Amino acid sequence: MNTKGLRVQLLSDSESIDAIGKIAAMDSVATEPAELPASDQRFGIAEAAGIIAVIHTSAEIALLLAKAFKLVRGQKKITLRTPRGSVTIEGDATTAEDVILAKIKAAAII
Amino acid sequence: MEHVAFGAFNPRFYGVSMFLTDADRRDTLNRYFEHPDSFPVRANDGSPSLGEISAISAIDHELRHFHDFLLSPFGTIMMGLRMQATINGFQAMKTIQNCPGRFVPVPLIRWMRWDAAMRQKWIDTTGASYGIERTEDVVPIPYVEDPSKSDLQKGLHPVQDGVSHEIRFQQYALTAAQAFVSMDKCRQRSFSEYNLDVTADNIFEATAHLVQLQAVWTGQDEASSKLFFHFVMNSQSKQLKPLQILWMALQKSITVTRALELCTWMLLGSYEQIWSRGHPANRYLQVLTLAAAAPDHEIFSLPMPALQLFARLDALMQAGAWSDNLAAAALSADRRSSVYARAAETLKGGFFDTLFSVATVWYSDQRAVRATFAKDPESFVNPLRYLNERCYPIPLVETRFGDDVHEREDSLDNLNARAITIDDQDRQVLSYIVRLKSDRTAHDLDDAFSARIVTHMVDFLFTDEPVTDLYEHWCRSQAKKLINKELISVY
Question: Does B402 contact A44 at a Cβ distance shorter than 8 Å?
């Protein structure tokens, strides 16, 4: 992967996105607020929130998500969107980093 | 309860959409259709379930959106923009394959709004990982800060003969972008007073929730309607705030019918002043101001026919007559219809035919709705009559499954339904489009189905960012077949 990093978007509810922002800051992963156009395609997400993260490897994003799942309450869905497509990871505090990594790799979007 | 939508109305599909996004909703509706008399179902403590109440009555909510859209001048404007976005967007898609550049950035409108420095930054960080080394690798499209301010001709853009594919693509794309951004602006335009921001969507939600409340009462029972009313009046959803405040201001005298009459009047503003005093949100604040100053005013408390109420509101607010406003919108629809008829003579075949056919059905529906309303407004603003008499057109219904697909054993073979599928065997269904009543023909169904595939592709290319993985994958593959270039999402 490019050493300058890859801009990806993470989409979920505001609690999960806040958690990702906090973990990213601690782990020195660069982030930016994401502009989310109004869309009626967000089935079931009452108040969708998003963040742009600049990542370098699939493992880095998997670790970020695993840590974020530990910060939020209960089961959450976080959608990772890259230039090639998207994959939605459902997880909670017990979801392991390697499980997330396997899902990201299976989606073949990075 | 979280305010999670059970359905949607958006003219990207000419009809109403129902979201069967989880197994519980699907189960509720299946049981309801099989045994309607067994509803409402009571929980163990004897109380009704808000989720079930909402699932069963959501169709009446969405139908009201459809009818308000056909009646209101605001809806006429939105339909014009929708057609502008779809037809020009599809023209852009058809020309894109002949343009230089191997990659198409999606959504195109985001790329348009990025200046050279931002584009280069994206290429340096992200694009390089996907084989994009320089801006020339991407289809050429100029930087436009605000596409809605483009001076290109609105409507169906006439590209002159003899221009290059590149210019042709850019002009169609910019005209489509202008419409997409204008639609967003129309919906996001807000008016503020008393620490309250009000949009047109808020007023459309108010009428739809009031109709749904009546549907719960008549279709289910009093206990269910009380629970639903409590939800509407206490929900934290921003969409419901204006209705809650109006109801509070008038709590001594307000009835569901009077609230529906007032909110319907808000939708009948001047076509020419739609950005100012004719905007539904502005008219809401005019009514709220009066309600705050004089809650006992006879406009709010005295029984009177809707025609008289509308006339008195027009006079009180010094607004043009509601009937003139509808006539102006109808004239505009006539003009649009003529434009589409002329365009259909040159843009022939396949998807274009279906888009123009859908426009013809819309034209006929809005005429029918306005004629019935003008003759007998009570049929629209009296919620009981509106629900019982069903004298307004029943549209096609799109059923969507959110994160899931519906797995079928065989491909669909049904005279009254079509399925948008994402696999070669047509067994994995993204959505069904269904005809509920015989006033839509099988031909209408086929046209709406094809037109929906176009809006899926065009919206994905220009503006929309679906969060459903399968849906995004499907949109990407459909669009790629047509444009023959690599689609690359930009963030």
Answer: yes
Alpha-carbon distance A32 to nearest alpha carbon in chain B (angstroms): 10
> What number of CA atoms fall less than 13 Å from residue B420's CA on the CB side?
27
Cβ pair A6:B129 closer than 8 A: yes
Chain A's closest residue to B467, CA to CA, is A42
Residue B403 CA to residue B25 CA, distance in Å, equals 14
* Chain B residues within 8 A of A81 when measuring between CB atoms: 465, 489, 491
Closest alpha carbon to B108 in B456, B488, B462? B462
What span, in angstroms and rounded, lies between the C-alpha atoms of B205 and B243?
9
Whether B467 sits inside 8 A of A9 (CB atoms) is: no
CA A8 to centroid of chain Cα atoms? 8
Q: Do B489 and A83 touch (CB under 8 A)?
A: yes
What are φ and ψ of residue B251, in 5° steps? Answer: -60, -25
Contacts 24+ apart (CB under 8 A), B116-123: B116/B143, B119/B143, B122/A7, B122/B490
Distance between CA atoms of residues B370 and B264, nearest Å: 13
51-80 in chain A: CB under 8 A from chain B: 52, 54, 77, 79
**Alpha carbon of B176 to those of B102, B153, B489: distances in Å?**
21, 11, 19
Q: Are B246 and B284 in contact, with CB atoms under 8 Å apart?
A: yes
C-alpha to C-alpha distance for B213 and B228, rounded to whole angstroms? 7
Over residues B156-171, mean pLDDT: 84
Mean pLDDT to the nearest integer, B431-453: 91
Q: Which of B103, B138, B102 is nearest to B120 (CA)?
A: B138
Least confident of B150-164, B178-192, B235-249, B285-299: B150-164
Domain extents in chain A? 6-107
Taking a C-beta distance cutoff of 8 angstroms, is the pair B282, B189 a contact? no
Residue B8 phi, psi (nearest 5): -155, 150
pTM for the model stands at 0.92
Q: In this structure, are residues B95 and B27 in contact, taking their beta carbons and an 8 Å threshold?
A: no
Radius of gyration (C-alpha) of chain B in whole angstroms = 24
A3 touches chain B (CB under 8 A): no
Under the banding of pLDDT at 50, 70 and 90, the label for residue B39 is low
Given this model, what pLDDT does residue B1 score? 43
Q: Do A42 and B467 touch (CB under 8 A)?
A: yes
Whole-angstrom distance, CA of residue B305 vs CA of residue B413: 48
* CA B382 from centroid of its chain's CA atoms: 24
Nearest CA in chain B to A41: B466
Question: What is the pLDDT confidence band of residue B98, given thresholds at 50, 70 and 90?
Answer: very high
Report the number of secondary-structure helices (H) and strands (E) in chain B.
Answer: 19, 10
User: Which of these, B66, B61, B85, lies nearest to B14 by C-alpha position?
Assistant: B66
Round to whole Å and give the CA distance between A3 and B126: 10
B131: left (phi over 0), alpha (psi -120 to 50) or beta: left
The ipTM is 0.90
- Taking the C-alpha atoms of residue B299 and residue B250, their distance in angstroms, rounded to an integer, is 11
Q: Which amino acid is at B431?
A: S
